[in-house]
Amino acid sequence: QVQLVESGGGLVQAGGSLRLSCAASGSVFSINALSWYRQAPGKQRELVAASISGGNINYADSVKGRFTIARDNAENMVYLQMNSLKPEDTAIYYCNALVSRWRDELPRNYWGQGTQVTVSS
């Protein structure tokens, strides 16, 4: 099995910062990509930031310049540094990983449980 666990969410005032962490564990042979999504009440889940093995990183336009994604491949971790937070950033943030459990397995998507981020005005 593969598990993803997010942490670091909380309540912060507009303009503040939070750092989210996601740890992958279990039957992880390799991680091809790590990404962060978020979902606000009544809205669809949206991609926030993605880090692809091979070096490609992309951000949603709404967070570009404010959020930074970083990977620690040795520890199967991914982080999301969130600065200059806005009330519209309020959402549950989910970690997603493309994981191969054994050599040559096609990677599958795995999701974390989510961590709540609330930004007050």
Structure, explained:
The protein has strands spanning 2-7, 10-13, 18-26, 30-39, 46-52, 57-59, 67-72, 77-82, 91-100, 108-111, 115-120. The model has no long low-confidence stretch (mean pLDDT 95). It is an all-beta fold and 121 residues long. The protein is elongated, with a radius of gyration of 14 Å. It is 0% helix and 59% strand.
Entry summary:
By secondary structure, the protein is mostly beta strands. The chain has strands at 2-7, 10-13, 18-26, 30-39, 46-52, 57-59, 67-72, 77-82, 91-100, 108-111, 115-120.
Please give the structural blueprint:
Blueprint: E1 2-7, E2 10-13, E3 18-26, E4 30-39, E5 46-52, E6 57-59, E7 67-72, E8 77-82, E9 91-100, E10 108-111, E11 115-120
Parallel strand pairs: 2-11
Antiparallel strand pairs: 1-3, 3-8, 4-5, 4-9, 5-6, 7-8, 9-10, 9-11
Keywords:
121 residues, mainly beta, elongated, four-stranded antiparallel β-sheet, single chain, seven-stranded mixed β-sheet
Q: What overall geometry do the principal axes of the alpha carbons give?
A: elongated
Q: Beta-strand level of the residues, as a percent range?
A: over 45%
Report the biggest beta sheet as strand number plus sense, adding barrel if it closes.
Answer: 7 strands, mixed
- Fraction of residues in helices? under 10%
Nearest-angstrom radius of gyration? 14 Å
What is the β-strand count?
A: 11
SS class: mainly beta
Order of helices and strands: EEEEEEEEEEE
**Count of helix runs:** 0
Mean pLDDT: 95
Q: What is the rounded distance between the termini?
A: 40 Å
User: Uncertain runs with pLDDT below 50, 5 residues or more?
Assistant: none
